[in-house]
Amino acid sequence: MKRCISFLCAGFLMILSGCGAPSVGDVGAVRTLFAMDTMMQLTVYGEHQEEAVDAAQAEISRLEGLLSRTRSDSQITALNRHAGDGSPVAVDPDVYSVLSLAQEYAREVDGAFDITVAPIMDAWGFVSKNYRVPSQEELARLLPLVDGEQLRLEEGGSTVQLAKPGMAVDLGAIAKGYTAGRVEALLRSYGVEDALIVLGGNVTAMGRNYSGDPWRVAVRDPLDGEAYLGILPLQDVTASTSGGYERYFEQDGRRYYHIIDPTTGLTADSGLLSVTVISSDAARNDALSTALFVMGTERAEAFWRAHGDFEMVLVQADKTVLITQGLEEGWDFRGERNGYQYEILHR
Ligand code: AMP
Ligand code: MG
Question: What is the 51 CA–ligand 2 centroid distance (Å)?
């Protein structure tokens, strides 16, 4: 069987498909764009594929304009600017939804996920890209500002506010998953059933690919951007990857990832190199991949056992790849060349 890599995305997953991948006017509408600080690609099939892909791109821009915290005119920037001043900020229903979902997921994972981690992200220089290791004193001073429960969501769903001055929200761990869910719904409203929505490390596979098979999504080797650990056949689910070979800096021989443990203010150091989560809820999926990366294998495994609604791939620093039993069928392992082995986690 002849196969080639048709698209290498800047996120953590790359997509494999047969040679002669679909192109506009051929068997699908393909759109590549840069938004939310990452490469995105939409592949859409259907009678109205061109209008659908245009509408999807416009929706991504609209949500980016609302949810970005680096744009001076976004609603998240307004929320952060008014932190602690007592004036509630009126927000779009989508902004309200992302914030309330984020709060719900934070409770679910017991603090491993918290969108109010922004002041800590800034202290590490992850936004400015002037990377540094903050002192213990600095972190101790900032940690009281990390508290998702201090994000007040007004009854009725139209205004929000941060309780303390200096608090700030960063939606980097959930915005792409939320957007993928919105794009999926939008595409369905155009009659689209088959599409691949790649938003950096979040990949939503709708229906089937152009040859009528489930989409094939590869999990990258977190230590080697050119290699992959295995391929998963996916249909009507989202795969979100956190960690990996991108978005970290190195100092004194240590690697610091852009994911923070909100309870310590330190970068996550749980013995995991990457976490991929697969489920049918794109926004929660994105939040979970970030949270499980913070939690580490033991807590992630316990969380998976307690929740029947997602599957995961944990890549450990010791080069063991743990995959949950729901992914076993169709899992095509390719990691042996780089010294990985895999184990199945059974319920
Ligand atoms: P992801 O790639 O989805 O794992 O998201 C990582 C991004 O989420 C980071 O670049 C930060 O903007 C933000 N972030 C980092 N740590 C956390 C955390 N523990 N909870 C929520 N957001 C986080
Ligand atoms: Mg995430």
Answer: 29
Q: Both ends of the chain: CA-CA distance in Å? A: 34
295-306: buried (b, 16+ CB within 10 Å) or exposed (e) per residue? bbbebbbebbee
Centre of ligand 2 from the C-alpha of residue 290, in Å: 4
- Rounded to the nearest whole angstrom, what is the distance from the C-alpha of residue 198 to the centroid of ligand 2? 14
10-residue averages of pLDDT along the chain (347 residues): 34 43 62 97 97 98 98 98 97 98 97 97 94 97 98 91 98 98 98 98 96 95 94 98 85 91 96 97 98 98 96 97 97 97 97
Contacts for 40 with CB less than 8 Å, ≥ 6 apart: 9, 32, 33, 34, 60, 198, 199, 200
Closest to 145 (Cα-Cα) out of 165, 121, 125, 126:
165
Q: Which amino acid is at 233?
A: P
Asked if 146 and 262 count as a contact pair (C-beta separation under 8 A), the reply is: yes
| 283 Cβ closer than 6 Å to some ligand 1 atom | no
